[in-house]
Amino acid sequence: xxxxxxSLIKSINRAIVLNKVRTKSPISRxxxxxxxxxxxxxxxxxxxxxxxxxxxxxxGKIGAxxxxxxTMLTFTEKFxxxxxxxxxxxxVIVIDLYGRIDFHNKIKxxxxxxxxxxxxxxxxxxxxxxxxHKAVDMLGIGVxxxxxxxxxxxxxxxxxxxxxxxxxxxxxxxxxxGVDVFYEHSPHCSALAHKWFGSGKNFSDFMVIDIxxxxxxxxxxxxxxxxxxxxxxxxxxxxxxEKNGLKCRCGNYGCLEAYASEDIILEKINEFVTVDSxxxxxxxxxxxxxxxxxxxxxxxxxQLAQALATSVNLLSPKVIVLNGLLIEYFGDYxxxxxxxxxxxxxxxxxxxDTKITTSSLQYSHVIGAASLALSDIFEVNEYYYI
Length: 386
Ligand SMILES: [Zn+2]
Description:
Layout: H1 6-24, E1 27-28, H2 29-36, H3 40-53, E2 56-62, E3 70-75, E4 79-85, E5 89-96, E6 101-108, H4 115-131, E7 138-145, E8 148-150, E9 155-158, H5 170-173, E10 181-185, H6 186-197, E11 206-211, E12 215-221, E13 224-225, H7 257-260, H8 262-269, H9 280-288, H10 291-315, E14 319-323, H11 325-341, H12 348-352, E15 355-358, H13 364-378
Parallel strand pairs: 4-7, 7-10, 11-14, 14-15
Antiparallel strand pairs: 1-3, 2-3, 4-5, 5-6, 8-9, 11-12, 12-13
Helix pairs in contact: 2-3, 6-13, 10-11
The structure holds zinc ion.
């Protein structure tokens, strides 16, 4: 890493100090110095700056058995928010700088795939954020969209499951005045959430397969999100699993998404057990006891295994995390099928180094969206990632 100048080093050291407060608070200045290896004078300067900015505060002294008692530091009550625009609803969350949830809500659309209805729900979500939080305490808002984003033109270029967003300039239509707003593709947010707070926390390279009404992946490479050349990286839902197969919403035939996405699986299950995404909690045991439904889930597992094998061969991630509503209820069943099948499609050595697991993180899309704002505080773009 070539450090450009003094201010870059300062930004990185500031992020290092902030991360110590995030992970170890209450923590004293001398403890930060000891754990970061930075000299005490620099720590004193950083802390003075953070106190002045109102990001940290002193919370009294804790006595050491030998020597002077230390003044401890923690974050003040500052927050970041996440908003997830999905084909079914807009979800919103407010978390503090430690990631603790302070507010959460879901707003269903009056009309599906309608831009005005989506904007109305988005504005209600924003209202919710500021109902109990002052603008001055809100350090940033992240927004997750189900479509692929052109960051340069601030436009959603493709959203096969939510066409009403295609061509939309989000910086005009989905903005929040007076706060920094960050945007990202929703499966990418899901991966970021797992990096900050989920099963990817301790791994430098992993991926999250996000199964909603679309299927997408977020790839974390060396602790940072991998976008690819045009932010398309991770479109695992459009891997062909069946030559000349069913028509997919993208226009091609035989894509994984045409077989194994949430709405399609629920539609198939509905032939045998009446269920929708809201009633899954009450019905999933009945579904697991039904042989026809089990066959549907079995096929889904085999199809996922085929697509996952490609990822294992290509990227060799340490962990693959399966995420989504169907995984929440049928994750164990699907995992067993996948583990039995995947070896048929990938190299044994690649597979030995990859663990496939299911997510236990709640609200991953909105938390991931909020983490875009956390990244602005705790990471230095291109140079320092937690
Ligand atoms: Zn497709």
